[in-house]
Amino acid sequence: MSELAGSYWVVIPAYNEAHTVRDVAMRARQQCPHVIVVDDGSTDGTAEVLAGLDITVLQNEENLGKAGSLWRGFQHALARGASGVITLDADGQHTPEEIPLFLAAAAQDSSLFLLGARRRDQRRTWFWRYFANRVADFWIGWAAGFSVEDSQSGFRLYPAVILQDVSVRHDRARSFVFESEVLIEAVQKGFSCRSVPVTVLSRSGPRPSHFSPLADIAGITRMVAWRLLSRGFNLCGLWRVLWKIESRSDPHRVLRTHREQKTESR
């Protein structure tokens, strides 16, 4: 485990993931000393199967949705001085052993928003899920102003400076919209986003995905439409998406601005 790993926290939101969450949490703990599992009002004993592990388990009294669970985990980590938060799903699709890939990128630039881009040929997945992901990539990229690869991946690294700077709704209605909106707002504020190639495994366990291709993409589209209207349709962003131009912001300028704002507020 690297020295850098000690300054980052892993947050794993979980809802009825008793079948897989213990293995995911154990493997994540081998990569980072600080692991948080947020049990979102599970009814299958998700929290109970984590007993005995050297991790933090936060239990929501009621189901808050993924947005609320992530936000609670973020605030817990930030309050304890985390340099950033790495998120991964509890269903076993992500490989915790790839956390060092994110840490290596963060070592080069600690202000980067890192998005795990799944290496598996997603065309082999269920058609509607593949189609929904492609639609989401287009809309989110347009609003953010650059070409986004695998915008719906839950394997991410959020720098603390971004989490402290963005203001995004995290109520239950936001669900999967929250992650997309944080990405868009971070880039609009001048932060850079980079992709980290990661492996995705077929979901193990009996439950279906919590992601609803039609309903959640509809929510994402409404959010993006509002942001495009507020920015005059961001035609430059559309051009960058069509030509697959990646984010090229100046994160060092953003960090300086953020530090200046914090100094002024004191």
Question: Could you characterize the architecture of this molecule?
Answer:
With 266 residues, this protein is of the alpha/beta class. The protein has one domain: Alpha-Beta Complex (Spore Coat Polysaccharide Biosynthesis Protein SpsA, Chain A). The protein has helices at residues 21-29, 65-78, 99-108, 127-144, 160-163, 177-188, 213-230, 235-242, 251-265, and strands at residues 8-14, 34-39, 56-59, 84-87, 113-118, 156-159, 193-198. Helix 4 (127-144) runs parallel beside helix 6 and helix 4 (127-144) packs parallel to helix 7. The protein is globular. The termini are far apart.
SSE blueprint:
Elements: E1 8-14, H1 21-29, E2 34-39, E3 56-59, H2 65-78, E4 84-87, H3 99-108, E5 113-118, H4 127-144, E6 156-159, H5 160-163, H6 177-188, E7 193-198, H7 213-230, H8 235-242, H9 251-265
Parallel strand pairs: 1-2, 1-4, 2-3, 5-7
Antiparallel strand pairs: 4-6, 5-6
Characteristics:
266 residues; seven-stranded mixed sheet; alpha/beta; Spore Coat Polysaccharide Biosynthesis Protein SpsA, Chain A; 7 strands
**How many E strands?**
7
Note the overall shape: globular
Find the structural class using helix and strand composition: alpha/beta
Task: Work out the radius of gyration.
Answer: 18 Å
Return the CATH topology.
Spore Coat Polysaccharide Biosynthesis Protein SpsA, Chain A
Strand order of the largest sheet: 3-2-1-4-6-5-7
Tell me the series of helices and strands, N- to C-terminal: EHEEHEHEHEHHEHHH
CATH homologous superfamily caption: Spore Coat Polysaccharide Biosynthesis Protein SpsA, Chain A
Highest-level CATH class: Alpha Beta
Number of domains: 1
Rounded mean pLDDT is 86
Strand content: 5-15%
What portion of residues is helical? 40-55%
Total helical segments: 9
Name of the CATH architecture: Alpha-Beta Complex
What separation lies between the terminal Cα atoms? 36 Å
Biggest sheet record: 7 strands, mixed
Q: What are the low-pLDDT stretches, counting only 5+ consecutive residues below 50? A: 249-259
